[in-house]
Amino acid sequence: MKNPFTIGIVKEEKFCxxxxxxxxxxxxxxNGQNVVIYSPRRFGKTSLVKRVLKDIEKTDKNFVGIxxxxxxxxxxxxxIEFFSKAIIQSVGKEVDKTFFQKIKNLFKNIIPSFTxxxxxxxxxxxxxxxxxxxxxxLSDLFKGLEKYLNKNNLKACVVFDEFQEITTLEDxxxxxxxxxxxxxxxxxxxxxxxxxxxxxxxDMFTDKKRPFYKSSFLFPLKKIxxxxxxxxxxxxxxxTDKTCPKKEAERIYDLVDGYPYYVQKLSSIVWxxxxxxxxxxxxxxxxxxxxxxxxxxxESIWINLNKSEKIVLKNIAKYPDISVFSKEFIEKTRxxxxxxxxxxxxxxxxxxxxxxxxxxxxTDPVMAYWINKS
Length: 374
Description:
The chain has 15 helices and nine strands. By secondary structure, the chain is of the alpha/beta class. The chain has three domains: 203 residues, 3-Layer(aba) Sandwich (Rossmann fold), CATH 3.40.50.300; 75 residues, Helicase, Ruva Protein, domain 3 (Orthogonal Bundle), CATH 1.10.8; 68 residues, Arc Repressor Mutant, subunit A.
């Protein structure tokens, strides 16, 4: 029997609720609105937006969804390459007799080349004239796409996943300004900006001094309600001839604070360890396995933190109910109030901590377990 729990991009049949979010996001995109989707990493943002694009494409043959992952971006040339590839793949969809006609003269200065694989799929390589300016290349991209859509009476939604990563580029301010200048004039293209480093992303759209100020709807992605996720867990076990009592499903949810990725992953491990019926002991063992599995990721994050950040993070994990600016916290960390403030600001920007009910907590609940066990 196949494990029913999904760790990566969630397919339509395995979606746990999100009906309200799907409906709202569809409406915004179909009405040509630009949207900023933000949440901690692994909350299901990418699965959600890909599901919405697919649903719209099913019902509207004149709609094109264009998904671009900007997480690996390290230069404006990367941005040009990733975005142009995404446009070509979405416009072409499949390699058939009309493919090369569709993408012919799509861009003036960006030259694609293709390698067709035996299974009919293809890989794309992009050649860019590096003597051309950033403005010229971005203009080529945005105008080329708009021209194609107008010519074929199409509408599109462009998704920039992990959009906040462009703030790390040398030309970030210029890129922000150029992109904004094009998207505010395009009537047949909506844009969805997705990100998990929430402060960086939200600041781009709420800071009066930034080009994207008030250009898009803010769409925070929340946790899936406990009752709905618990029902999904119980039913998934039942469909595979195993039993997970409601009480144990609630415990799975609570142990990882309703964090969607971890609810799925912990449930998956519990399922693997269960022969017939889930028990408290099985869940305990599964949680230890989960912490161990995630440790490599946490170690790579930890090694890049400075001493003050590590001290603050350790003490937030150990004393989750104490205010970081209280006398008690200062005494425990032996840091100055200024040192704590600096560490808190940095950890917030990195999305490692967040403020909830006026108390800072570690964003990733499993990382909190890992820190306390270290």
